[in-house]
Structure formats: C-alpha cells, structure tokens
Amino acid sequence: MSIGIIGAGNIGSAFARALARNGIAATIANSRGPETLAELTAELAPHITAGTIEEAAKADMVLIAVPWSKLPAALSGLPDWAGRIVIDANNPIEGPLFKPAELGGRLSSEIVAGLVPGARLVKAFNHLLANLVSADPKAEGGNRVLFYSGDDAQAKAEVGALITRLGFAGIDLGTLKVGGSLTQFPGGPLPALNLVKFG
Fold first, then answer.
1. Which residues, including other chains, have CB under 8 Å from residue 190's CB and lie 6 or more apart?
2. What is the C-alpha separation between 48 and 62, in angstroms, rounded?
3. Which CATH superfamily is 3-197 part of?
4. 123 with 149: CB under 8 angstroms?
5. Residues 6+ away with beta carbon under 8 Å from 198
6. pLDDT digits (tens, 9 = 90+) for 118-169
7. Kind and range of the H or E run holding 42
8. Are residues 6 and 57 in contact, defined by beta-carbon separation less than 8 angstroms?
C-alpha cells in the first residue's frame, strides 16, 4: 500500500520519521515544493521521498497535517479521492496565538471530510505531541497508545494495522462522531495525554 503525506510541519515530519524508522516508504509534500524538503528527505532516505501535493495525494493512504487555515488551499483542485484512505491528523488551531478555529458547531473531521470528496476518512495521529509520534513507541514496558476513529470499518482496519506496524498500541474509538470529538484539540479530553498500554 502506497503512503503519501501532505504537510511537512511537526506532525507530518514526525509521521515520516516513524515510517522511515520502520522501513516504510512514503512521499511527503508541502505547499512550497519538493526542493524545500531536501534536508528532511536526506535525513530519512531512502524511505521518504519528496513530491508535489498531487503526487502525495495519489497514494492509497494519505496523511494530511496542514495548518488549519491553509487546508482548503492545500486540498483544492485535487481529483476525487475515489475511495482511498485519508488520515486526518489536523487540529483546528494554529500558532502563534493558538486560538481555536470557528467550526460552526461541527467537528473538525466533518470539515476535513468535505475537503476530500470520495475519501474514506480516519482520524488519527493528531492527539499525540509530534515528538511522541516520532519517538520509539515502546515505553515504560508497554506501547504508547494511539487512538483512531472513522466510519468505514475497512479503512479503520488498514490504519489500525499501520499503527500496529509502527509499534503503537492502537485503540479504536468508534465512529468519527464519537472518536473525533474525544481526540479533537482543543475541546476533547484525550489530546496530549501520553498513555501506555501493557500486555
């Protein structure tokens, strides 16, 4: 299964590092072009290569982690996602002020889903601090917990399998409505908790 990453900030880069540590290939892209990712791809060679957003979006599974206000521009003009899996790792907040975005009573994942028509959306990788995503998930004699949620059982199973392959203890929180609200930052009770599962 091919993997793409749209967004090379803290979370996108941390996800790329986790993949590379486990020998998994992916294409990473940002809004400024592949040449601006030379340092990151040199660090993570040969597993992580830089590409355009269009190239990253063609993968079977695509993690999206883009500053909230830039999401519509980053995802505009892409072809229909045609049933491919999108991992929503976005949080509706941005530095430097960290003021929550106005969501009009909707979950951030519902808004992201509207920007990726035809995709099977799974919420994951947004609730852990970036340094914990890229670090060895074996901790305190157990495995660091990574929550995920979504409305498509098969898509969740694929993402859950990747989470396990990366060494995390994946915990399925159910539907986007339930899991998305629990892990949304700000607002949900689970973001930034560093939990470890034993056994």
1. 127, 147, 182, 183
2. 14
3. NAD(P)-binding Rossmann-like Domain (3.40.50.720)
4. yes
5. 141, 142
6. 999 999 999 999 999 999 999 889 999 999 999 999 999 999 999 999 999 9
7. helix 38-44
8. yes
